[in-house]
Design a protein that fits this description.
Layout: H1 3-25, E1 26-30, E2 52-55, E3 62-70, E4 87-97, H2 102-111, E5 117-121, E6 126-127, E7 132-140, H3 142-154, E8 162-175, E9 185-187, E10 191-198, E11 220-222, E12 233-235
Parallel strand pairs: 2-10
Antiparallel strand pairs: 1-3, 3-7, 4-5, 4-6, 4-8, 8-9, 8-10, 11-12
Helix pairs in contact: 2-3
Length: 242
Amino acid sequence: MTRFNAFVAASLALLASACAENQESLIVINAPAWGDGCTVGAGGGDVGLPFGVLDVAFDTRYLMPALLLNNTSVRGPNNAGIETNEVQLLDADVDLSSTNAPEFIDALRASDENLVSFNVPLATVSILPGETQGVLVEVISGSAAVALRDEMNSRGFDEDTRITLEATIVFHASRSGNTRGEVGGIEAREFRFPIQVCLGCLIDCSGCDEGECPPDYTSVAGGICGNAQDLPVFPAACEAPE
């Protein structure tokens, strides 16, 4: 091996090591179970959602909860008094795919590529070494939900039929005490989260008069974060289901 080739090999090995270290600096623990209201689970991520559910009959987006860990050790403050290994969230890349219903991804892509592959800006929250932070990420937009609803309607789907989409999310952050251009940038490992998509499966009218949905109701309550996801929704004029 020539001296130049040895230098290139060593440089590539160093780069690969740095990339791996960056991926281990910020870790997605799981998609935690929901807490009270529109909050990431207060249980510290002990219980994770095995999958999400989005009812596209109501044209709402899907927000995925994520619990992130700053997996670095305390190094102490730099000259500016900032903990060197503190990380600051930046954004997340989201890609949608499907193994059991790829034609729905094709339909979304034909409508707009940005419905299946996009970037989501995040609040620039700082996470100290060893600490966790819950975040919410829009992984299916309202526009994508409308397109999915139309596609499911065109195929004659009912509330008992579900398809599964997989959201692949990559979080980006920067190291607060050492960021110069690309230096100090952090890219977490991919996190994949399945979401079952249905058409009318989450509506629950058991709290309505005689357990029947009122005709032509226009607004619903329940779900999560104002979205028809993960928990039952019900007509706003009815009582909440027991």
